[in-house]
Amino acid sequence: xxxxxxxxxxxxETEAALERILPPPGxxxxxxxxxxxxxxxxxLRPVLALALHDVLGGSQAPREEVAEAAAALELVxxxxxxxxxxxxxxxxxxxxxxxxxxxxxxxxxxxxxGDALQTLGFEMLASRPSGVPFASGRAEAVxxxxxxxxxxxxxxxxxxxxxxxxxxxxxxxxxDRLKEIxxxxxxxxxxxxxxxxxxxxxxAPERRAAAAGFGASLGVLFQIADDLLxxxxxxxxxxxxxxxxxxxxxxxxxxxxxxxxxxAERERALGETLSLAKDVEGDPxxxxxxxxxxxxxxx
Length: 299
Known about the structure:
The protein has helices at residues 3-21, 28-37, 44-55, 63-84, 101-105, 107-127, 135-149, 154-164, 175-200, 205-232, 235-238, 244-247, 253-281, 286-295; strands spanning 94-95, 98-99.
């Protein structure tokens, strides 16, 4: 299947799954949850899970339930974006081309919407796919995601990012610290997304490890591209504020390596990710296409 066709199908499956599992509109909290989750986006994390599931042979589970498990990743990702945009964090007013959740629904409801999306994500992983044959896989999926977004993962990376932002101390603004921040903040969830796909496919431990390694490398590549877009893209194209990294003195690949150096780092990361994709899928295919897409995207 062509990459464009797969992306379109996987995104349709994800959107349909999100509509099924989100609470119906009409309640203030539900409206805030739906506002941010259904505002668009690349849906990269569930797409990755579905891609690895398919590349590694798929499963006997109903496809809709596989998509709902994958969609849990989008719920958790959206929770992180809502919280990341709050005034106490990055204080951003634009996300996915729309005013951020707290701008529209208020800070308190935005905070609760993020909390509710996170717990709904874990509910999905604990219950999809249903049935006794998939019980151990569900437990593994919950464990993998919990480790990816906690102290040693996304939350820990966000804390390190806040600590390094706007701080002149050289010990906090090094290439090693940069890689640690983004390895946790971005890479761990992308790695978990790929490992979840392997779990859903019932893959052997070594295949799961290869999938996770590909996802971690893809996370580095994705973040470098994101840092470059903050400098080179427009808000209209990107769908979120641009230039905020420099304004907040964020530690980024551009601030550490310069623009040309960051481009070189992106190409290095792309080569590494393509090599790891080959370890999983053999000849260049869907995963190689996803790596090229992540590295050279324009939004």
